[in-house]
Write a structure and sequence with these properties.
255 residues, alpha+beta, 2 domains
Amino acid sequence: MRRLGLLWVVLAATGGLVATGSLDAAPAAAPEIGTARVAFNDRVIESAAYGAGVDLVASYPIVDDRVVADEIVDPDHERLWELVVETIPDRWRSRIRQFSVIDEGPADTVAMVHQSGHDPGRWLLSIDRSDGSNEALVRDTLVHELAHLITLDPTEFTFHHRRSGDCQGVLIEIGCAHAGGVLARWAESFWASPGRAADYDPTAFVAPYAATGPHEDLAETYLYWRRGEVPAGAGLVLEAKLAFIEHELGSPIPR
């Protein structure tokens, strides 16, 4: 996600649309990508409590690449989902099985993904409606989230809440990057202490948020690579990171 945010799933809700007001804050120790803990299928959604200051506006199951509701869907919510369709390739978008609209205020969280608690191959995506009018910002954030979908896939990564036994790879704050995977090799190449945040160095990181953890570093660097941007003052480490992205994720992503 862009900016550290928390999501903690607490109950199950059936049917199509769920709308609610302000929710209780998530526990401070909750992993930042979030975890879901209830059964899920095409017509049952996972209902979540977000961090303090975040209101859940609506949640929709995604069926056949469209939002599903038992009533007319808000056109603004449909437009947000259209941005997802336009930005995230089919191969990865097909793994998003729930879409939620939240409200936290402009240019804060923007969007976030959370692994389903029932099926680790499925994902929940949330977008802040406060940022909906800034489509360029939403698209950029979705590119960042795409990098999470790719590198936190169950074939590449195991979250703490699913992990049993020792990590046979690289242990980071939110879980275990599998040995030989993209995120594990990223952490081994560029992070001396992958289990904690690094000191921000503009010659080595594309933005301060990238220094919060290897997974956010990779996702934010992927965004800059997709933009074709090399930040001013980039040093050899940052140039090596961009070359890594080019080599590992630079081939066309199947749509």
